[in-house]
Design a protein that fits this description.
The protein has 120 residues and is mainly alpha-helical. The protein has helices at residues 18-26, 31-38, 45-51, 57-69, 91-119; strands at 43-44, 73-78, 84-89. Residues 17-115 form the HTH hxlR-type domain. Keywords: DNA-binding, Transcription, Transcription regulation.
């Protein structure tokens, strides 16, 4: 006999779900890494490539453009010869750093829990 599905008593979310919006932003491949390394200050493209081993130039370019378009990253062309470009976090990008730190903290706890259960 199938169980009856009860009606959800939680109030509906206003408009678009804010959690989904945030996770859509952070869920992109390499996105948390880019935000993490930019949280330490402005970086040039090649510095980010060194910071994030394994990311291709094409993927880094795509992530930086996407984050710039969404207002998370600021792109600034420096008037040097030859011109250089620096990327930094906007205020919105800085607001995401505590969320990433919380995820890292939970990740450490999960890793430690898994290591403890593996040795038991």
């Amino acid at each position: 006999m199938a169980l009856k599905i009860t009606r959800n008593k939680a109030a509906p979310l206003p408009g678009r779900c804010p959690l989904s919006e945030c996770m859509k932003l952070l869920g992109g491949a390499w996105t948390p890494n880019v935000i993490w390394y930019l949280s330490g200050g402005a970086r040039r493209f090649n510095e980010l490539r060194v910071d994030i081993p394994g990311i291709s130039a094409k993927m880094l370019t795509a992530r930086l453009r996407e984050l710039e378009h969404k207002g998370v990253v600021r792109r600034e062309v420096r008037p040097t010869s030859p011109p250089s470009v620096e990327y930094s976090l906007t205020d919105l990008g800085q607001d995401l750093v505590p969320a990433i730190l919380a995820i890292v903290d939970v990740g450490h706890r999960l890793k430690n829990r898994d290591q403890c259960s593996a040795t038991s």
